[in-house]
Design a protein that fits this description.
Layout: H1 3-7, H2 9-14, H3 26-38, E1 43-47, E2 56-60, E3 66-70, H4 74-84, E4 88-90, H5 91-94, H6 98-108
Parallel strand pairs: 1-4
Antiparallel strand pairs: 1-2, 2-3
Protein name: Oxidoreductase
């Protein structure tokens, strides 16, 4: 069974309002899953679809490292998170975790965790 069938990407592509963004692909879902499997304490944060971008998800590890990928619809990332036994939150309700902002600030300055 392909990734699209398993997580509902094909169905998610058919609806929505994003006009300028590319659709979510298998590689997007795989990247989120690989990030989850290679990091500790990963949580997913669903970002809403806009006119310019489709629904995205941000995966944030315990140390604050994060990645963002297209997911097509909130249902897709909820299914992925359920299969990985990982928490998933609506970013419009809970916001982004402070550790994510801290990690981004450290990496913008070129600092490591030891600095």
């Amino acid at each position: 069974m392909g990734w699209r069938d398993r997580f509902g990407l094909r169905k998610a592509k058919k609806r929505g309002k994003a006009r300028f963004d590319r659709a979510a692909e298998d590689s997007d879902i795989r990247a989120l899953m690989e990030f989850h499997n290679s990091k500790v304490g990963v949580e997913f944060f669903v970002e809403p679809e806009t006119f310019a971008t489709s629904t995205t998800a941000v995966a944030v590890a315990t140390d604050g490292e994060w990645i963002r990928r297209r997911v097509g619809s909130p249902e897709v990332i909820h299914k992925v998170a359920r299969n990985l036994a990982a928490p998933v939150y609506d970013v419009q309700v809970v916001g982004y975790p402070q550790r994510m902002r801290d990690w981004t600030a450290r990496n913008k300055r070129g600092l490591s965790m030891d600095d």
